[in-house]
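A protein record pairs a chain with a discrete description of its three-dimensional fold. The following entry can be read in just this way:
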Amino acid sequence: MMNQKLNLILCAYAHLPSGTPEEKFEALYDTEIKPLIAALDKFNRINMVIHYSGVILNWIEKRHPELFMLLEDLLSRKQAEFLGGGFYAPAFTLLPLADRIGQIEKLTTYLRKRFGKRPQGCWLPAMAWEQNLVGPLNSCGMNYTFLEDSQFSAAGAKSVAEGIYSPCITEDQGKLITVFPVYETLGSELLKGKPLEVLGALLEKINHGKDGEIETMVLPMGRTKYENLFAELSKADAGVNYTCPAKIFKNLRSLGKVYFPGVWAQPDGFKEETNPRKLLAANPEASGIYAKKIYVHTLINNQLRGDKTRKHTALEELWKVQDSGIFRPESPGIFNSKVRKAAYHSLLYAEKIIREKKKIAPSLSVFDFDLDGEGEFIFQDDKLNCFIKSRGAGIFELDYLPSAWNYLDTLAVNTGALKGKQRCTFVDWLAPFGTQLADSSPEGVKDGRFCGEEEFEVSETDRIHRRVAFRLPAKANLPWGEVEIGKTWQQKKNAIVLDYLLKNTGTETVIFTFCTSIDLSFPGDGERFLIVFSLHDGEKEIIAPNDDNTFRNVNGLEFQDINNETLIVLESSRSFDGRIMHVRSGVSGDEEYQSTCVMPLFYVSLEAGKTWKTVFSLKISSLP
């Protein structure tokens, strides 16, 4: 055993998405970052490679700048090495080429200015990989990166011993980069309290083909008592060398070539690796942010040519939204309301920057916004964006630019007809006549037919008057199939108006309950976030929380968004009864407020050939 040599690269990494509460940053610093750096300073034999995202480094510089002195000392004596990567820890595979390079260069510049050293290698958040990453990584001066051992296995890499792989090179379009394997499982074993036994087993396991051949492994660090761990690791015999990749990179020879499949590593609790784009296809919230990101990226490139200052500022906001944490299922991630809302705030703030010197005339346009192959209908003026799709003929994004807020940033519940579906505003239900208010909920209406996933026909598009009409034809094979639903949307000043026309196409009278589900997403549901009033005959009355959250015989509702200083007024030409409920969902055991759901109910009796009408208006303005 004494003739064997084992080089270990211990790795620490940390990142939190923008929008994560301050207390989580402090907790990460107090329990992991500070103890790790302090312990590393005490044990000179232990070398480590570190990747902290630009978000984390910026936060440390502002809140705990004293740590930078320790980091500078570790770097100067080459006991630690900083890895580069994307400043905002992006999922590189989902970025345009220019943004991949821009994010890497931003973090590289930050590290060079703060610590005087340009990184030689980079960390890939979530180990998200596609082979075309080789070119931009190489062009940005990155000599090496890291992928998990499972990715080596999936690529068919030749192992040194069972489950143990050597560093390799990978190539794309003539560009090369070295890839080191990361062993998450071995890293976890190392932290369980008997690190010397783990290292001894590794020395026994590794089969050296040549005298002096060195195998390199990366053992990522997790939350632990770092002083105790480093004290134990320091007792290892001379056959174990704790090193950094920069120290050994130039001496690596005769590396095998491997081409890796396009996957990213899943977090604990998610066993299967997956292509990152699968999440976009399966998750409407992730898909919505991704589509908006592509839309804003196009606006920046098309409308800010030649204006470097504004373009740089807008790109900074866009890059914040490219965070890999947003596109992952664990917390804080796509299920976290604050993280999503921070993402939309950045996107809309970037859009405001784009619009600063341009007068926005009210308009109606049709294009494939959500990248599903079908055109969506986009109403825009100087303050509002309203996005409507033909499936359900409802609103799926509603932006108020003065507050940089998307009032349709919701999260689907996990049950009922809406399971796994994007929550929209003004999507419709047909239910039995006499349906009670208690029979409605954010999951839907009891025994009702959900029309929100049915395809409406476009019967009129009038760009001049900014009006689009949809029609859901009668369907004899469905409940209340003789009822035809017409929905006509029109943009007015600071408002969206919706005309409903229900028609009985059958030969007999039909009676039913009609409900349209209206979701709006606020910063929170307590009184310090939201106050709701009912409107009736020019009078308004506060709606206090009650057991069934019901209201009766109102003409509308007023929502006062305290944080955004915004007023939303929903009015109907017919009075209605209804329920107002707050949707809470997310990671199991950590559910949080996502949106507020209003379910107005109308009881309708239609003779053969007759019609029923009502008009809704949704107006958004600043609080007086």
